[in-house]
Design goal:
The chain is mainly alpha-helical. It has one domain. It has 6 helices and 2 strands; from the N terminus they run βααβαααα. Helix 4 packs across helix 5. InterPro entries: DNA_S_mod_dnd_assoc_4. It comes from Chroogloeocystis siderophila 5.2 s.c.1.
């Protein structure tokens, strides 16, 4: 683990991340790299897909300063993913630099896993925004099914 105070992106996912942002006349579904990475980490965590980064992207997108996540309130997501993964509140310790390093490392790997899921979902897609809406819609339907009270279990 290398402590940088920055959130890193795997080199093999850099093009995908760049394509998902709304710049250079493109209308990507996300406004910032930070938004993309947090969405990917949440998706990776939801599907329990944690993937080591391997080679790190040094250019676009270069490692993102952690302050950009904090300003948007996304440090909460980083912390929740770390707690869920380690099942230990000490990972939130602010006195130890290693705790921040560990939280970031876990978050980066879940983001990388989420980006892998997105790569797979986007194969053959023309409109990434539409595909993301489909992913979110199917997640919502799945969640609704899980939370509905099902009377059929009382029938025998």
């Amino acid at each position: 683990m290398v402590e940088t105070g920055r959130i890193r992106v795997a080199k093999d996912k850099a093009d995908l991340v760049k394509f998902l942002i709304s710049t250079d006349g493109r209308t990507g579904p996300f406004q910032t790299y930070v938004d993309i990475i947090v969405f990917a980490a949440a998706l990776g965590a939801k599907h329990n897909k944690r993937v080591p980064l391997g080679e790190i992207s040094k250019r676009e997108p270069s490692p993102i300063p952690q302050e950009q996540f904090i300003v948007r309130g996304y440090d909460t997501v980083i912390n929740l993913i770390a707690i869920t993964e380690t099942k230990n509140l000490s990972v939130l310790s602010f006195s130890e630099n290693q705790s921040r390093e560990k939280r970031n490392y876990i978050f980066e790997e879940y983001a990388n896993g989420g980006l892998e899921i997105l790569q797979s979902e986007f194969r053959g897609a023309v409109d990434y925004s539409e595909r993301i809406l489909l992913i979110l819609s199917s997640e919502r339907v799945e969640h609704k099914k899980d939370s509905e009270f099902d009377l059929s279990r009382f029938l025998s």
